[in-house]
Design a protein that fits this description.
The protein is of the alpha+beta class. About 40% of the residues lie in helices and about 15% in strands. It has a domain at about 15-115: Arc Repressor Mutant, subunit A (Orthogonal Bundle). It is built from six helices and six strands, in the order ααααββααββββ. The strands form three sheets. Strands 1-2 form a two-stranded antiparallel sheet. A hairpin with a 2-residue loop joins β5 and β6.
Length: about 160
Amino acid sequence: MTTRPLDVPTVAGRPCSVAAALEIVGDRWSLLIVRELRFGNHRFSAIARNTGAPRDRLAARLKDLVAAGVVEARQYQASPPRSEYHLTEAGRELAHVLQALREWGDRWAVETPPVRLKHRDHDYRTGGVCAECGEPVRARDLEWQTTDPRWDLAGPVATT
């Protein structure tokens, strides 16, 4: 499968995919929109109701997500014009991010998880398995490597 980088403005500081991703989906409303679309709520009114987002902010975020290629608008009514919103491939791949946030929130942010995700007859939880080789992964097995010669893990490399 071929992926294409989204059109992300250059961000200040360390070159980083996390920073670039946050430029696209790094606010509360964007990720809650993606959550609602994953739940099957495609119309503006349902997204507004279920996120609690102010309508003007929701409209702006939907416009930004469409422009970034995370969401696509599909017109279902011509007069007045009305659209439903659906996740693109890039948006669907945010499911992993939402799952990780949900699991963290279940453990650290709420007393009782308000939503459960089931896989067959049990709760679904992400596992630390390498998609490349299938081996279980522990934090101590991982090594960060920088790819930009101007930066190391501590920060910018001094040039002489």
